[in-house]
Amino acid sequence: MKLSFMLSEIASGLRRNLSMVVSVILVTFVSLTFVGSAALLQSQVGKMKGYWYDKVQVAIYLCSPNPETANCAVGGDGKYAAATAEQTKGIEEVLNSAELKPYVESFQYESQEDAYKNFQEQFGNRSMADSVKPEQLPASFRVKLVDPEKYDVINERFSSLPGVDTVVDQRQYLNTVFGIINTASLVAVIIAAVMLVCAVLLVATTIRLSAFTRRRETGIMRLVGASKAVIQTPFVLEGVIASAIGAILASGVLWAVLQFVVQDRLAQQNLNMAFIDPSEMLWVAPGLLIVGVLLAWGSSLLTLRRYLKV
Where are its TM segments located (predicted)? Predict the structure, then answer.
C-alpha cells in the first residue's frame, strides 16, 4: 500500500510540474555532459602521454651555416661553420659511451639530405618548401631515451660539445598540446560547475513548487500519522528521477561522440595517434549518474527541511 501510494505521488508530482522537470533534466544533462567531457579529456591526455612518451626523441642538432644559437664556431670568413666530420664522429662516440648507455636506448644520424627529404614530405605542399635548400637544414642525431624524463642528462652532456648547436626535447611540443587539452578540461569544469549550481537551484525550485501545490495533501497525511519518510520520499524521488534521466542522456551523448566522432572518424584519419574509446564510459557513466543523484537528493532534502515542515 505504501509503495503504490508513493509511486502514485511521484507520478502526480512529475505531471504537475512537467515543465520544471524537463528543465531539470536539460540542465542536468548539459552540466553532466561538461563534467563527463572534462573527465574524458583528462583520460585522453593520459592516453596520449602513454603513447607518445614511448616514442619521444631528443634531437641533437649539429652546427650549420644558420645556427639557432651562438654555440657554433665562426670560420675565417666571419661566418658560422658547419659541424666537421671529426666533431660529428666525436658526438657519436659519446652517444655510444658506457657513460650514456643506461640512458640511451638507440639513436640514428640524420644528414642534411635526410632532413631535407623529411622536410619535403611534411611541408612539400606549401609555398615555402621551394625556398628551402638542403644546406639550410641542420644535420642531427635522433636519440631515443630509456626514460624520456632523463632529458636533462643528455642536454647537459651535449649542449657544450663542439659541433652541437642545440639539444631539443620533443616532449616540449607534446606538452604544448597537452596544455591546450588541459585548458579545455578546465573550461569544461568551470562551465560544468556553473551548470551544476543551476541544476541544484532548479531541483530546489521544482521540489518547493511541488510541496506548495500539495500542501493540503501533506497536511492530511500528517494528521493521520504518516511518517516523515513517507511524506518526503515522493518529493525527493521526483528530483532524483529527473537528474538520473539527465545523467543517462549525458552518458548516451558522450558515448555517441566517442564512437561516431572519435573512433569512426578521428581514429581512422589519424592512425598514428592514440585515442580513447567508448569503453571509457564504463567508469564515466556510473560517476555521472552518482553525481546527478547525489546533487538532486541533497538539494531536495535541504529544500524540504525548509519548506515542508513535518
Answer: 21-41, 180-207, 235-262, 282-304
Q: Which grid cell sits at 124?
A: 612539400
Highest mean pLDDT among 39-43, 92-96, 178-182: 92-96
Q: Which residues contact 207 (CB under 8 A, 6 or more apart)?
A: 235, 236, 238, 239, 299, 300, 303, 304, 307
Over the stretch 35-92, which tens digit does the pLDDT of each residue have? 888 888 888 877 777 666 666 678 888 888 777 777 787 765 667 778 888 888 998 9
Beta bridge mates, 142: 59, 108
Cα separations in angstroms, 271 against 1, 111, 125, 181, 268 = 60, 28, 21, 20, 6
- CA proximity to 205, closest of 298, 299, 294, 297: 299
Domains of the chain in start order, with CATH, are 2-52+175-307 (no CATH), 57-169 (3.30.70.3040)
Helix axes 18-52, 281-307, angle to 10 degrees: 140
Residue scoring higher pLDDT (243 or 232): 243
How many angstroms separate the Cα of 209 from the Cα of each of 65, 200, 202, 223, 303?
Answer: 78, 14, 10, 22, 10
